[in-house]
Design brief:
Blueprint: E1 9-18, E2 21-28, E3 34-40, H1 42-45, H2 48-61, E4 72-77, E5 83-87, E6 89-90, E7 92-94, H3 95-102, H4 107-126, E8 139-142, E9 147-149, H5 173-176, H6 183-199, H7 209-218, H8 231-237, H9 249-264, H10 268-281, E10 319-320, E11 323-324, E12 329-330, E13 424-432, E14 436-443, E15 449-458, E16 465-466, E17 470-474, E18 479-480, E19 483-485, E20 496-506, E21 509-519, E22 528-536, E23 540-547, E24 553-561, E25 564-573, E26 578-584, E27 595-605, E28 613-620, E29 628-634, E30 638-644, E31 651-663, E32 666-678, E33 683-689, E34 699-710, E35 715-723
Parallel strand pairs: 4-12
Antiparallel strand pairs: 1-2, 2-3, 3-5, 4-5, 7-8, 8-9, 10-11, 13-14, 14-18, 14-19, 15-16, 15-17, 15-20, 20-21, 22-23, 23-26, 24-25, 24-27, 27-28, 29-30, 30-33, 31-32, 31-34, 34-35
Length: 745
């Protein structure tokens, strides 16, 4: 029987042969579009666990649309168990060939390779697809310096016990402990390749697998061998603990861009891409269509992966009616109780190439031998899958209107059995770390189930914004534990966001949700660009601080009175780049009719570019209250006067004492005036005395004292009244003419 070929394609020539199968250059008969077809080896086709896992991966891969990932158009199985994948053809050479030819790349070119790969990995990770075997052989550099990531899927089997899947030189420490591949292991491998681009050698070398395991798990990260500008990137990406690596490939891109701009300027990417283009162009004769018709046979090595025959991939922009199309469908075998398949899978084909004046130059390159001289020969061990390996369930065939209709063989039923309705008996979110989630689905029968996953994110649990739904087909088992994730952007430093995953199935079960808060990293201290005192009235300072980032800073205000610091206040700022502040100080009261100089000096930590800022203002005291006067005592002879003043300014007292004397039939009035000036204090007691003549008897003496204060004019008055004794009878006493005036007071 002739060798099976994928229907609808015309094979041009064989491009390579390896342990995982053979690769051919072909064109789609309806359009002439170039593609690469990989026919899986008999060993892989006869491995039901591999096929089940690969079919699950393929269902997700055909949905991926990313400029940094080689497109998978379709996966086809024949009724006889043959299997093949049809892929995009990329016009370029593997990064491995560039490194073999030139040794190293410039730092900018290495950064461009790493960024492109991280972007492709981020898209794949968001759909739950892990590369598992990232290495230079799987990075394809095109003539314009851009790159595409190939061969997502399952690493090939090596046949050695205890050897995990992947390529030893790029395997993360946790993979050596038989932990499954994850987004974190892809980031580790990409950083190892980044290191190799910079230095021309792999991060660790050993004479045997045990030594390689020990190096990846325990040897120091060789950051000192790379330029200082990227040491932090290498240190994070190759961290021994996966929790110390960037949380996502997308987050690592942000770190990469910041380091690249800081070290090589804003045009680093253009320079790096230009350098890659130059290196690739020097190998133009190795581009697929420039290769000779006969392809050398490619051996296998410990580094071989499932899809690792080095396809030279070409990326024509296929178009129909001017719109880009990526029509992809998976066709799988239809099996009945393990019997011979009865239907051949047919799928949509790659759409026609758009008419373009530019020539299409697809490329395919056979897989190179592993360059690890110390690694044993043989293919890489694949992680076992926990999924059941029942025969694949058929997907409805989809045919392009321009292709030959699918022929559906007739099946003779031997019995009619009505199966019980399929039920989802268990649905749970086992764990959710805000980026990826482990799910568990149980069904009542081994029949297809559709799992719908929706991620959401927001500033709080009441304002979550849903992201596009992911629909994942499940088949081939009754218990599934898929891991799903979304390419969330890391929260801004100092911020907390909330993320939720909601899952449901068809047949209906759920929805089931889980929500978790995600904190952004601590913000680094910013550079304080300026500090300004916009206003200062002696009590409140209006201050504006500008920084170049939202990190924490400290603002301190020193309040002084007449040049002497009296009070210090500080406040912490973060979360913004412009801060209007109101800083209040208490410098006390200013004495009446006095003037004080109040000042404020504002500083920041880190120090502001324009240094400390100071502003002062003259603050007058209020007008002093006028003095008050009080006559504490007055006995007609001596008066005690109390004065209270609002200031120590001079106070003038004017005293008037008037004597009203009634003697016999006579009314007499005598006056006395005095004054005094008081100053230097605010409380005074002053005594005033007066002396008047007074008869010995028969009189009434009323003495009035009035005290006035200036300024203000406050007055006080007090009266003293004395009634003299009656005079004796003139016949018995001396005549009045013999009496004398009273004593002088």
């Amino acid at each position: 029987m002739s060798e099976w070929t994928v229907p609808g394609y015309r094979e041009i020539r064989e491009l390579g042969v390896g342990g995982s199968g053979r690769v051919v250059l072909a064109t789609y008969e309806s359009t002439g579009a170039f593609v690469a077809i990989k026919y899986l080896s008999e060993r892989l086709r006869n491995d039901p666990e591999f096929l089940a896992g690969f079919q699950r991966e393929a269902r997700l891969m055909v949905e991926l649309q990313d400029a940094h990932i080689v497109k998978l158009y379709e996966y086809v199985q024949s009724p006889y168990g043959d299997a093949a994948i049809v892929m995009e053809l990329v016009d370029g050479v593997p990064l491995r060939r560039i490194l073999a030819e030139h040794g190293t790349t410039s730092p900018e070119a290495a950064l461009v390779v790493l960024k492109g790969s991280l972007l492709g990995l981020s898209t794949a990770h968001a759909q739950g697809v892990v590369h598992r075997d990232y290495k230079p052989e799987n990075v394809l550099i095109q003539a314009d310096g851009t790159s595409k990531l190939a061969d997502f899927g399952v690493a090939a089997l090596s046949g050695e016990q205890g050897v995990p899947s992947g390529t030893p030189s790029y395997m993360a420490p946790e993979q050596w402990s038989s932990n499954p591949a994850s987004p974190a292991t892809d980031v580790y491998a990409a950083t190892c390749v980044f290191f190799e681009c910079l230095t021309g050698r792999k991060p660790y070398r050993a004479d045997h697998l045990a030594g390689m395991r020990h190096a990846h798990q325990h040897a120091p990260i060789p950051t000192m061998e790379v330029p200082s500008s990227v040491r932090a990137l290498v240190g994070r990406g190759m961290a021994k603990n996966p929790m110390d690596r960037p949380p996502t490939a997308r987050a690592f891109v942000a770190d990469l861009e910041a380091a690249a701009v800081a070290a090589y300027g804003s045009d680093w990417e253009e320079r790096g891409r230009r350098h890659l283009a130059e290196l690739a162009t020097l190998l133009a004769l190795l581009f697929p269509l420039a290769r000779p018709a006969s392809a050398p046979e490619v051996g296998t090595s410990l580094a071989r992966t499932v899809l690792s025959d080095r396809l030279g991939h070409f990326a024509p922009r296929f178009a129909i009616g001017g719109s880009l199309v990526a029509a992809v469908v998976i066709a799988v075998l239809v099996a009945s109780n393990g019997a011979t398949p009865v239907s051949e899978g047919t799928t949509l084909r790659p759409p026609a190439q758009s008419e373009s004046p530019e020539p299409v130059v697809p490329t395919v390159e056979p897989t190179e031998e592993s360059t690890e001289p110390t690694e044993p020969t043989g293919e890489t061990v694949t992680d076992p899958t926990d999924e059941a390996t029942d025969p694949p369930v058929a997907q409805p065939p989809v045919t392009d209107p321009t292709t030959t209709p699918t022929v559906t063989p007739t099946v003779t039923a031997t019995a009619t059995v009505t199966p019980a309705p399929l039920k989802v008996t268990g649905l749970a979110v086992s764990s959710f770390d805000g980026q990826s989630a482990s799910l568990r689905v149980r069904t009542s029968a081994n029949r297809p189930v559709s799992l719908r996953v929706v991620f959401a994110e927001g500033p709080d649990t009441d304002h979550l914004v849903a992201r596009p739904a992911q629909v994942i087909p499940l088949a081939g088992a009754t218990t599934y534990t898929p891991v799903v994730q979304d390419a969330f952007t890391a929260p801004a430093c100092g911020k907390t966001v909330y993320r939720r995953i909601t899952i449901a199935t068809t047949p209906k079960a759920g929805p089931v949700s889980k929500t978790t808060p995600i904190k952004g990293p601590a913000c680094p201290p910013p550079a304080v660009q300026s500090v300004a005192i916009a206003s200062w009235d002696g009590t409140t300072a209006g201050v504006e601080v500008k920084t170049d980032g939202p990190g924490p800073a400290k603002v301190t205000a020193v309040f002084a009175r007449d040049g002497k610091p009296a009070q210090t206040k500080s406040t912490n700022i973060s979360g913004k780049t412009t801060y209007p502040l109101s800083l209040k100080g208490d410098l006390g009261e200013v004495a009446c009719e006095k003037v004080a100089v109040f000042s404020v000096t504002v500083t920041t930590e880190p120090a502001a570019a324009n240094g400390p800022q100071t502003k002062q203002v003259r603050v007058p005291g209020p007008q002093c209250a006028p003095p008050t006067v009080k006559i504490a005592s007055w006995n007609g002879r001596t008066a005690s006067v109390q004065v209270t003043s609002g200031s120590t300014a001079p106070v003038k007292l004017t005293v008037s004492i008037v004597q009203h004397l009634r003697y016999g039939e006579r009314d007499l009035e005598f006056k006395d005036a005095q004054s005094a000036t008081l100053e230097g204090d605010t409380q005074y007691t002053k005594e005033f005395s007066a002396s008047f003549k007074q008869p010995q008897c028969g009189f009434t003496d009323e003495r009035v004292i009035t005290v006035s204060a200036s300024p203000g004019g406050a007055t006080a008055t007090s009266t003293s009244r004395i009634v003299g004794p009656a005079c004796p009878d003139p016949e018995t006493e001396e005549s009045p003419s013999q009496g004398t005036d009273g004593p002088i007071l």
